[in-house]
């Protein structure tokens, strides 16, 4: 298979040319290949799906040795998990939990939202609000990723509507506010009905949380520092 052969040899080319004038054009070429594979997989091209599933299976068989090129992992992970079932999802979840590199964790967090199994997406939504499983600062990203999945969009919308009370009391950063506003805009066509007021209250509450943090962060930090110093003296 041409793609398989080309990608498997990329490591050699990077090693040989990473300090030469060839490196720039080679990066552009790789970017184009990633886009081509991503497009092919998103349209359901069988050859692409078989390729990504094969790579992912190799990784599942040997978790300590990931054969997938870093630049292709987002596409491969998403495609393989979308085409797979609980076994692929659970493996991806385990790798996400064990990831020590932030960029790798982000790729897996996104890919886990690609599954087409509603029950797995519902479970992932529940995980999003459990800080023991997913960091609080990643909760909104997880929900937005799931909402970007055709299967997950209505599930995410129902989930968020049911949990406004909890969600809006937790948000306290500018990034979270933007994500909340984006979620509202992306789902405006669905119609908020009786949930409209709750949405507006969530955004207002988040804005208030951000303002409070900005105004009190320094004094709170000073207080904790003083307590730490006092304990050291004692």
UniProtKB/TrEMBL annotation:
One GO CC term, this protein: cytoplasm
Protein family according to the UniProt entry: Belongs to the peptidase M1 family.
Organism (species): Albula glossodonta (roundjaw bonefish)
GO molecular function: metalloaminopeptidase activity; peptide binding; zinc ion binding
GO BP terms in the entry: peptide catabolic process; proteolysis
Location of the ERAP1-like C-terminal domain: 31-172
Name listed for the protein in its UniProt record: ERAP1-like C-terminal domain-containing protein
Upper lineage: Eukaryota, Metazoa, Chordata, Craniata, Vertebrata
